[in-house]
Amino acid sequence: MIKITEEIKNDIIIVKIQGEIEKEDEQEIVSFFDKKTDEGNRKFIIDSSKIDYLGSSTLGVFSKIYQKTCNSGGKIIFADLSMFVKKIFKITTFDKFFNIKYSVEDAISELKNF
């Protein structure tokens, strides 16, 4: 089970996902981002410092959310990757596909100019 919280700084939504992301949690993530983009939000940071586990299907979910947001004129940045997420992104080469920043602050700086 996961916990999703959000913090809004200016027009940037910082999404904090905490816990082990299992297949049954993925729809909650998709619904969250669908709702936020439908409301007109276009700038997101996914703080993944508290993600303890994610499976291959979650990578697919992240990829779809990333592409949908970018295709609608938005931007998603992954920030503060946990060691587990960092390792998975590197093994799968998603670290070359996703926009990743070392910290949430670095991501905010980039999105301020977007």
Automatic annotation (TrEMBL):
GO MF terms, alphabetically ordered: anti-sigma factor antagonist activity
CDD domains: STAS_anti-anti-sigma_factors
Matches recorded under InterPro entries: Anti-sigma_ant, STAS_dom, STAS_dom_sf
Chain ranges of the STAS domain: 2-111
Stored Pfam families: STAS
Family to which this protein belongs: Belongs to the anti-sigma-factor antagonist family.
Protein's recorded name: Anti-sigma factor antagonist
Organism: Muiribacterium halophilum
Lineage, top ranks: Bacteria, Candidatus Muiribacteriota, Candidatus Muiribacteriia, Candidatus Muiribacteriales, Candidatus Muiribacteriaceae
